[in-house]
Amino acid sequence: DASTSGGLMDGSFNIQSQLDASGKTPLMSASGKLANMQIQPAAKLALEDDLVKGILSASFSGNASSNSEQSLMNSATGKLDMELKDGTVRGANLHTALVAGINDMLGKYQGLLALLPQTGKAPKELSQDTKIVWLTASGALKNQLVSLSQVKAQLDKGNLNGTGWFNLNNDDFEFILGMQSPEFSDSPYLKDTNWPIRCAGNLDGKPTRWCGSDRKGLDAIAQQAMTKSASKKIADKLGIDAKGDTTQEVIQNAAKDKAK
After folding, report:
1. Fewest CB atoms within 10 A around its CB: which of 49, 79, 164, 245?
2. pTM, entire model
3. Using alpha carbons only, what angle is made at residue 33 by residues 31 and 36, rounded to the nearest 5 degrees?
4. Are 253 and 244 in contact (CB under 8 A)?
5. What is each CA distance from 114 to 75, 124, 188, 218, 259, in whole angstroms?
6. Secondary structure element (H or E) that encloses residue 141, with its range
7. In terms of pLDDT, which residue wins out, 125 or 259?
8. Distances (CA, A) of 254 to 165, 231, 236
9. pLDDT tens column, 17-70
10. Among 16, 23, 11, which Cα is nearest to 83's?
């Protein structure tokens, strides 16, 4: 058994490891905690670019069994919990991706303009970065794939939640996220909406191309909002509680009720 602790990148770490070589295949296990570490230096070294900064705390545990380095990596399994505070992802702005997707949606669904607060158009985003107030994630490692089952974050604009994965072998990744934006908090049909965003690619790629809105998801949100609006208008004007999955169904059901 071995235990190592100390200070690193303005934070601290404590790691316990164990090696069991009594069988034909050595078994290694490890667990540890990281506290308040500045991740910018490590991220810059690993990614060869200044893409991420923030204060990281994490706990992990895992084990691996093998006679060779490659199969040791392949056999590794483990669990991870992490928290990032005061962070920034440079060059990838989630709010910009959301705004662009919503403005495209408004061009397709003109009826949504009346449902937006104030200007009737989502604001433009000038920043090229995503600023993170705090982020938490829980995940597991298997077959060199880190699967994150819970990702939650408070951003400087809105909050998000979702799932994702990262491939340790080739640096590919994908995150499916739902983002809530304060710009729509005054709209009765769009507030508390989880706007769908997909971030995917490779760490060697351009951050500006990593994230984009989910067009199919936006279409579903637009149709749902317009359907709710139509139902309310009919109820206010005609006193008919018309329901339906689409605006057309609501109008048709209202006409049937009125004809009775």
Report:
1. 245
2. 0.76
3. 165
4. yes
5. 56, 19, 12, 17, 29
6. strand 130-142
7. 259
8. 46, 9, 12
9. 998 888 888 889 999 999 999 988 888 877 777 778 899 999 999 999 887 777
10. 11
User: Contact at 8 Å (CB) between 18 and 29?
Assistant: yes
Query: Residue 101 and residue 197: Cα distance in Å, rounded?
Result: 9
pLDDT of residue 228: 82
Tokens of 90: 């440079």
Calculate the average pLDDT of the chain. 83
Write down the pLDDT at residue 126: 45
Cβ atoms of 133 and 155 closer than 8 Å: yes
DSSP type of residue 117: S
Please, which residues have CB within 8 angstroms of residue 52's CB and are 6 or more apart in sequence?
Answer: 39, 40, 43, 87, 88, 89, 90
- Percent of the chain with pLDDT strictly greater than 70: 91
N-to-C CA span, the chain: 81
CB 75 within 8 A of CB 88: no
Closest CA to 127 of 98, 166, 86, 167: 98
Q: Helix, strand or coil for residue 158?
A: coil
Mean pLDDT across 157-170:
91
Tokens for 85, please give them.
């505070």
Cβ-count burial 66-81 (b if 16+ within 10 Å, e if not): beeeeeeeebbebebe
